[in-house]
Design brief:
By secondary structure, the protein is mainly α. It has one domain: Na+/H+ antiporter like fold. It is built from 18 helices and no strands. Helix 2 packs parallel to helix 13.
Length: about 400
């Protein structure tokens, strides 16, 4: 396997610069993912040509994709979203699927896309990994509004992963693949139930003691679970990201308490500190700006995809008219329509398998970048404007 130390150095420098640039006080905080992808585009083979996503760097990027969905599965808190929020999230996402399939079918009929089903899946996504820090920083994570956003976002991440696994099959018919997917999910539920069983205190104490040694046994066990679920998913002909996402849920359920929190912090350090930045930077390197700019029609598809993404993810608001206050509905829609990591993964898979045109993939990723630049800030401003009148309203003097 080819090793390019210079390309690895360029990627590592970008990984360091991205969080620094995103903290620059310019009035609008740039999401770190956008900075990583943007700088990857700049140094990639289609612009400056300083680095190319090949050899070892490509492998690290693929491992970053796996770890991204592994950690996304770990962030899914069923206790927080179960009940009404989860039911509405499922109903809303299914409505998004119906709208997205109709819109993608229209694009296919017009000759604008050839991977209609992949485009449809992309239009149903929500980037929970991007939203979680924004909700946490704004103090929304523990609120009733935040709970509904997290539930909708979790469904907008898990649902497309399952659909993608079924659509990308090459070994079986769609019906067989659907059955295998359901069987895989049953295996995941069984593993999750086993993870929830009480652990003997002596074993918990032993695993905790190894956390400060060179063995790091709990971390190795978590990686083993990830590898096992990926291997099973591959055996079933499913996409590996479904295995990674399921492994994350299982590890999260089995990592309760103080020792579990320490384990999660170590896994996040591996992911967010090393592998995941590699994925986003190499994804930027893959971004074919020339294919987008050279074709005016392709360039016009960027705002079109952004509009369709918003349309598909905004229709579920009809289910929330009795659950959310009127002033909460607009920010809820913009949060739900925020997406990038899954769009990058879908575009990468589409191009690598030859199912998606490079210019459409570039337009799709560009739409995702615009969504995380524009939609969360719009939601934050809308929430702020809704709370200001209440906070400054004059108090009536009692006579």
């Amino acid at each position: 396997m080819e090793f390019d130390g210079g390309a690895l150095l360029v990627t590592a420098v970008i990984a360091v610069l991205a969080p620094l640039i995103s903290e620059i006080p310019i009035g609008l905080r740039l999401p770190m993912v956008v900075v990583e992808v943007g700088l990857g585009i700049l140094v990639g083979p289609h612009v400056l040509g300083w680095a190319a996503p090949t050899g070892m760097l490509a492998l690290l990027g693929y491992l970053g994709l796996i770890f991204l969905f592994f950690l996304a599965g770990m962030e899914l808190d069923f206790d927080a979203v179960r009940g009404r929020p989860l039911i509405l999230a499922i109903e809303g996402w299914l409505l998004s699927v119906a709208v997205a399939v109709s819109l993608a079918g229209l694009l296919y009929w017009m000759g604008l896309v050839r991977a209609a089903l992949l485009i449809a899946v992309a239009l149903t996504t929500t980037g929970m990994g991007t939203l979680m820090p924004i909700l946490r920083d704004s103090g929304e994570l523990g609120t009733r509004f935040g709970t509904y956003v997290v539930a909708a976002g979790a469904m907008g991440e898990f649902g497309p992963i399952v659909l993608l696994s079924v659509l990308m099959t090459r070994e079986h018919t769609r019906w067989v693949q659907t059955a295998l997917t359901l069987f895989f999910m049953v295996l995941g539920l069984i593993a999750a139930a086993l993870a929830l069983l009480p652990k003997p205190p002596r074993i918990v104490a032993f695993l905790g003691s190894t956390m400060n040694s060179t063995s790091q046994l709990p971390v190795r066990i978590a990686i083993m679970v990830l590898a096992a679920l990926i291997a099973i998913a591959e055996k079933f002909g499913l996409d590996l990201i479904l295995g990674a996402f399921t492994a994350g849920m299982i590890v999260s359920l089995g990592s309760k308490g103080a020792q579990g929190t320490r384990l999660i912090h170590r896994l996040e350090a591996i992911g967010y500190g090393f592998l995941i930045p590699m994925f986003f930077v190499t994804s930027g390197m893959h971004f074919n700006v020339q294919a987008l700019v050279a074709n005016p029609r392709a360039l016009l598809r960027l705002p079109l995809f952004l509009l369709l993404l918003f349309a598909a993810r905004s229709v579920p608001i009809v289910f929330y008219r009795y659950e959310l206050a009127k002033e909460d509905r607009v920010p809820f829609v913009f949060y739900s329509a925020t997406s990038l990591p899954l769009l990058i993964a879908i575009a990468e898979i589409g191009v690598q398998t030859g199912r998606m045109l490079p210019d459409n993939a570039a337009a799709l990723v560009g739409a995702g970048m615009l969504s995380i630049l524009l939609f969360p800030i719009t939601a934050l401003i809308s929430r702020r404007n809704a709370t200001i009148p209440a906070s400054v309203a004059p108090t009536r003097v009692q006579e």
